[in-house]
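Q: My collaborator sent me two sequences in one message, no labels, and asked for predicted structures for both. Can we handle them in order? The first one she listed is below.
A: Yes, handling them in the order given. First sequence, followed by its structure tokens:
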Amino acid sequence: MQQTSQRRFFRKKYCRFCAEKIDFIDYKNVKMLRSFMTERGKILSRKMTGTCSRHQRQLTKAIKRARAIALLPYIEI
């Protein structure tokens, strides 16, 4: 049996913050931060979101700050 090789088209993920030229990720912008979290409250990885490493570090720090002052939950049950 011969397997057919299927070619899939994958769109290259891009950093949303670099594209919009955002220098600082604000921890008070809860609506934007929620889009980088799962429904259970976990932070999505770079691999899934496509953010660059610099902005992923800023994003993680912003989410953790928002959690510390109760703008975002640590977990959702």
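Q: And the one she listed second?
A: Here it is, processed independently of the first:
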Amino acid sequence: MFVTPAFAQAAGGGGAGGAFATFLPLILIFLIMYFLLIRPQQKKMKQHKQMVEALRRGDQVVTQGGLIGKVSKVKDDEELEVEIAENVRVRVVRHTIVQVLNKTEPAEKA
């Protein structure tokens, strides 16, 4: 009924292997989170940044608010002027562009 002292002494002491075994599930969870959540999000952010930097006059774009318009002027690094209707232009922050619908070709130099 009672555990003898010899059995109690043999059951203890895991050493360094026991410490690694306790951290192994945490390490695996972090790796799974990295490959399923963090890495794809970083890749998506990188693609969005490249798309926004490549915007130029004449591109047809969609903003986060759902407005569809044509870039009429690239003001600076942070702002665009988008024409949403004839003679109706709005200033838009570059990073609010969600999608480029039609890309214009660069003008050929003669």
